[in-house]
Design goal:
single chain, two-stranded antiparallel ribbon, mainly alpha
Length: 493
């Protein structure tokens, strides 16, 4: 009894674990939402060079998740398996993130591209390591599914709070320093004096650059504090014999193949890419879409904030619906309801603030499902794999899931910059050609609807129903009880 009590996970510890989400979520939220705008408007890179930076760094991010999974699986220190990576990557992320928002003066586009490519690639590697280690840590805290789901829910709530904080803090700070509407769009004659263009004033750009750096400094401070809290406030129960990690050292590729081809995981990973990509496109392209297609530049921070607030408010309701009706049915319904609003995104007329608010509130609420349900389904897949193979490969399954999330992020972020290139975006211009509006509307509506329908089909065919999940849980409970009975006589001796 005393040992069980000593190993129990308190509410305080699960809260400390949830707070750790602030670190990675703050960084990646602001990076995903504002990186495209920053590169083409503030850093004044051409859309082509910005596409290179985004695509290569995101593609590298996909590879990083596999590297991170292998490195973490091979780690075994007296401080635990996850803690050294959470702490080390969390600390190193601070300077790298800050420099990612610094604009070196008087550099040609090619040199700027190399500068941001190196920083973004380093950021992605550290973020991947931190994310894999942190999210997998919940599996090392306890064997109790109820406690794991509680920690996952708290983590999901904190993640959305971090999204709100990131959007609100960065958006409002940058908006305060954004003097473009007041003094940037000055008239300047073209060289042939036959046409007139509106260019962004360098003085206004300097104000915006300062806003980005001040926001980055504040986010770095919050993230560092969150890293310290999760490092020293959460205990890893190393005696749980969580995974047969020794098998990974000699047969990593074989084990990886088994994980990737595991039937429930196949459907899970495919629909994850298809359903996560629209979320990335929505968050990464919303600022540009609101600015150039809907002519709501001054309302961008407020609209983004309303979106994530509606997601935060809806998350507890999603948890209650999952408890009552099961994970898969709730997820299917919420994904299906998202599609009409995605279609509506492409049909909104300019300056229609009321219509935009209705769409973003509903979209934000429905996207709450993506923040919680897939993570709980992932633990079901790990359990099913353990029953079938007698191996528990938490780290590898989590790293593979994060890899596919990053792949979706590559598609989403690259799609945004490619849309700008196809639309004929002109760097430094206050107004853009009509073709930019057309390409952005396709980006925000047509493409997300198509891939969401594919993802919905895979989700419907996902084989772990609520009944199978309960049967697997009972089988694992019996297996755990049998192991405890076998260990009891040895311990008494």
């Amino acid at each position: 009894m005393s040992e069980a009590k000593a190993d129990s996970v308190s509410w305080l510890e699960t809260t400390f674990y949830g707070i750790g989400m602030l670190s990675g979520a703050l960084f990646i939220t602001v990076m995903n939402t504002y990186n495209n705008v920053f590169l083409v408007e503030v850093a004044q890179m051409s859309a082509q060079f910005a596409t290179v930076v985004v695509f290569i760094s995101r593609a590298w991010d996909v590879v990083c998740n596999l590297i991170a999974g292998k490195l973490i699986s091979s780690t075994n220190t007296r401080f635990g398996r996850m803690k050294p990576w959470i702490f080390g990557s969390g600390v190193l992320l601070v300077p790298v993130y800050f420099l990612s928002w610094y604009v070196p003066p008087n550099l040609p586009d090619v040199v700027k591209m190399i500068y941001y490519l190196l920083l973004c690639s380093t950021f992605m590697f550290l973020q991947s390591v931190n994310n894999v280690a942190y999210r997998t840590q919940v599996m090392y805290m306890t064997d109790d599914e109820t406690v794991r789901n509680r920690a996952t829910l708290i983590r999901g709530i904190v993640e959305l709070v971090a999204v709100v904080m990131g959007i609100a803090l960065h958006g409002q700070v940058v908006a305060f320093y954004d003097t473009v509407p007041k003094k940037a769009c000055r008239l300047a004659n073209s060289t042939d004096n036959s046409t007139t263009h509106r260019h962004i004033d360098p003085e206004a750009l300097e104000d915006i650059k300062n806003g980005y750096l001040i926001s980055a400094a504040a986010i770095c401070g919050i993230s560092l504090l969150a890293t310290l809290i999760v490092t020293f406030g959460v205990k890893e129960r190393r005696d749980m014999e969580r995974e047969n990690e020794q098998n990974l050292n000699g047969n990593f590729l074989k084990t990886l193949k088994g994980v990737v081809t595991f039937r429930p995981n196949v459907y899970f990973l495919i629909y994850d890419v298809c359903l996560y990509s629209p979320t990335v496109i929505y968050s990464g392209g919303a600022a540009i879409y609101l600015q150039y297609s809907l002519d709501l530049r001054s309302q961008v921070p407020n609209i983004l904030l309303i979106t994530v607030v509606s997601t935060v408010v809806a998350l507890p309701a999603v948890g209650l619906l999952v408890d009552k009706f099961g994970k898969k049915p709730v997820y299917i319904v919420m994904v299906a309801l998202t599609i009409p609003f995605l279609i509506g995104c492409g049909l909104v007329p300019p300056r229609s603030m009321v219509i935009v608010l209705v769409i973003v509130i509903c979209m934000g609420a429905l996207m709450a499902a993506n923040s919680y349900i897939p993570w709980t389904m992932l633990s079901d897949i790990v359990d099913a794999y353990q029953l079938q193979t007698n191996q528990r490969l938490d780290t590898l399954f989590f790293s593979m899931y994060l890899l596919m999330c990053r792949l979706a992020s590559v598609l989403g972020q690259a799609a945004t910059t490619v849309a700008l290139v196809i639309g004929g975006y002109v760097t430094g211009e206050c107004s853009q050609p009509k073709s930019v509006d057309t390409s952005l509307r396709i980006l925000m509506s047509g493409f997300p609807v198509a891939i969401s329908l594919i993802g919905l089909g895979c989700l419907i065919k996902y084989p772990i129903s609520e009944q199978i999940r309960k049967e697997n849980k009972e089988a694992l409970d019996e297996m755990t009880a049998s192991l405890q009975e076998m260990k009891a006589p040895i311990a008494s001796e």
